[in-house]
UniProtKB/TrEMBL annotation, chains A, B:
EC number(s) from the headed UniProt entry: 2.1.1.-
GO biological process: methanogenesis; methylation
Family matches, as Pfam families: MTTB (PF06253)
The family this protein is said to belong to: Belongs to the trimethylamine methyltransferase family.
Domain of life: Bacteria
This protein's record includes keyword Nucleotide-binding: no
Gene3D superfamilies: Trimethylamine methyltransferase-like (3.20.20.480)
Designated name of the protein: Methyltransferase
Region (Disordered): 1-20
Transferase keyword on record: yes
GO molecular function, one term: methyltransferase activity
InterPro entries: MttB-like_sf, MTTB_MeTrfase
UniProt keyword terms in alphabetical order: Methyltransferase, Transferase
Amino acid sequence: MTDVTTARRSRSGGGAARRASRTAVSIETAKYIERNIPTFDLLNEEALQIIEENAETLLAEVGVNFVNNPAALDRWRQAGADINGERVRIPRGLARELCKTAPSTFTQYARNPERNVEIGGKSLVLAPVYGPPFVRDAQGGRRYATMEDFRKFVKLGYMSKWLHHSGGTVCEPTDIPVNKRHLDMLHAHMTLSDKPFMGSVTEASRARDSVEMCEILFGKEFVQHNTVMTSLINVNSPLTFDDVMMGSLEVYAANNQACILSPFIVGGAMAPVSVTGTLTQVLAEVLAGIAYSQLVRPGAPMIFGAFVTSIDMNSGAPTFGTPEASQILYGAGQLARRMNLPFRSGGALCGSKLPDAQAAYESANTLNAALMGGVNFMLHACGWLEGGLVSSFEKFVLDADQLGALHKMAQGVAYDDNAQAMDALRQVGPGGHFLGCDHTQANFKDAFWRTNVLDYKPFETWDEEGARDSQALASARVEKMLATYQQPALDPAIAEALAAYVANKKASMPDAFT
Amino acid sequence: MTDVTTARRSRSGGGAARRASRTAVSIETAKYIERNIPTFDLLNEEALQIIEENAETLLAEVGVNFVNNPAALDRWRQAGADINGERVRIPRGLARELCKTAPSTFTQYARNPERNVEIGGKSLVLAPVYGPPFVRDAQGGRRYATMEDFRKFVKLGYMSKWLHHSGGTVCEPTDIPVNKRHLDMLHAHMTLSDKPFMGSVTEASRARDSVEMCEILFGKEFVQHNTVMTSLINVNSPLTFDDVMMGSLEVYAANNQACILSPFIVGGAMAPVSVTGTLTQVLAEVLAGIAYSQLVRPGAPMIFGAFVTSIDMNSGAPTFGTPEASQILYGAGQLARRMNLPFRSGGALCGSKLPDAQAAYESANTLNAALMGGVNFMLHACGWLEGGLVSSFEKFVLDADQLGALHKMAQGVAYDDNAQAMDALRQVGPGGHFLGCDHTQANFKDAFWRTNVLDYKPFETWDEEGARDSQALASARVEKMLATYQQPALDPAIAEALAAYVANKKASMPDAFT
């Protein structure tokens, strides 16, 4: 583990370490967002009731498939569902009733207790991009992701003030065998960051490995009584729950670990082309999936997920940051709140191939909708590019900077005496200016959100410095952050035990690349 | 008038004209937006009442200055205000009472009646960038704007489906004498487009010229009874109404032409650093300004404007697309609705020097806030760059494309039987796909908003076509639009009369360049 070794050496003292400490970028992490603003409730009561009614009809009359999973069928049968082959028809109201044991909020613990996050209620927890097989940066272009890329993204996430969560598969480390990647990925999250993270879901055995690694990191007792992972369980939409995803969900639920139950829908392909029809399907899938988790273990923490893209009906390409995607996000948020469940949606989603204007329009549209739509857990909050095929280094820091604006927006507007500023208004009067007045002097430091990467310079300065665009400014910031990264401390005994676990597990299996 | 001549020749027939007609880009213009969605009400009742109370205190105790304008002081004195030098102190409640004669909605007529717009209520009218002395495009970089640039922007605006309004000073034609530019600008709007437009406000005499040109275009009788211009009157914040702006406002109000009464505020410099303090000042300024318009002519159509930027307290640069700017927009919208007045704010505002990711994040943040915050008239809806110093050709078409998404978002979510899509959900069932189902076939054409400029292509195709970023794609679209532009028809007698008016006016004055 090169990174661990390097960090230990630098922590052990000496002039180099002191210099590093003096020049270190602050690794302050903001507290998760607590909304002090209303949600935007797009759908009216009538529409919501129709969707809820139709979702129940769908579950009762059409049903859902639990594939290759006789145990799941047994659980459903015992709960009162009608089983026909792999089809599970759920009597009206049963799924919603079962969902009631899922908590409305839960704490996900981090190894650094200052990084613990509350998920649900008025909170918004931000986690980075998940899943891309490619990475891109300005220097190297688009290429298959490696474990070294993965580690860089974890480091960037650790150093990003507005990111509360280290995430999961920040990119697919394609240079590591498929059956062993999860070990290296979890090891990176556990050692290179101290923020909360996600577990593996690509096989039930890997979910078990994730739990076991957490037992090393947090202690076995702690893990059995506390949630230390939030993992992503996609529904195979429409209405299908496959055995791989359900196998992982079963492991996590049984161990009281949180899952996001997320329909994964390219609108028009995996759901109807209408917003209301799509919301009906999303709700039916979430009802069935979360109900199932509660059959495995009542009280298991779950998140109502909705990952829905629109589609370009000409090319079939999924599209992002579109009005229909926002409408579905708003509606799904309302449906989740009516179930008192934490809600996952949104992200800096985009279809663009580059971190350009298209990427930013699309991402900003979704980030704004996610804040206003009451999202509690936002995966893909930074770094997502090209429809999720690419993790972009530059976009990671550009998006992460915008997340700061969400924090400020969520604070709402103060209107105490100081905020009213009547003294300033009286002091300055017509034709004056406020730059030097007492109120400004007392308040300017926190008055305005400030970017860490965008350009606010005078034109001439900007021009002399090379007329850099956002991508170039972001490249420089990525480089600076990686150069000044310092690994958070970890008990050496735990570090050794984790390394040994990974080494042993890897040695116990042949490499598999598919 | 080169453009007119060229267009006439091409309309006169021949193979070239027929080919042009076959290849012409559609110049369909969408109807102004009618919101079928709620507004986002950020401030609570208590905060709003405090701001309203404080604004009255400000007007009564501190007052506002009407500079170099004895007639205005007389009007205020007769209305019951306390006058001391140029300071006007307005008794509590008087300004609000006077504002009540301003209409809550009005129609601005266009020479093509299909382009008439309703301003106020649930409508949202979109107009392009206003005011920049520079232009930028990918080929030529940043340079002083000329009348030829101005005409290009008017043409692009005319051809932009989602733009309802031709705007005003889409860029400053710096190659034309200052005292004559308004004539060429108005002439361009009147002849190169058939959408509604704005009048000149840089001197009372130029406002009168604007009215006279409208009398030629619409007929004298029509102009006296109908609103055919909406013009931009900035307040010299804090709390100062200068004679140039008020001179223009007086001309327009007396002629029943609409004005936007807009505090123009760089937060922290021209207003307190707090959102609540800034809103208090904005409200006081709007109350005083619109009240004054109603002293000139009760019933004159007016818009509650709020142009407020945040500021980078390090450099003093105004900043855009920030959370504070959005908070002020939301609050100002609530204050405007409580006065039953149309509301102007927002735009594709940004500080970036290039149409890059920064420009798009900042612009999208503001466009979203403007839609949700209940803006009725959005100036700068496309083309704004570098804090308003630059009109960008590429950003014009990129922003204008995003405006389409606002239209779709504003429609809200249908939930009739077709939108519920229960037949589709039953037909497809678990594990199927919706691409070929009856509901999709019947609905896909209008199901999803579609871009006209962004990239949704497969990676390989995009790469083979040159891996173009948004700016490059937008350049190509600008070129295509300008190449296929066709001038809207205009009665030749009116066209001649307008040209003669401009020529005579210009001949009557020496050139002035300051």
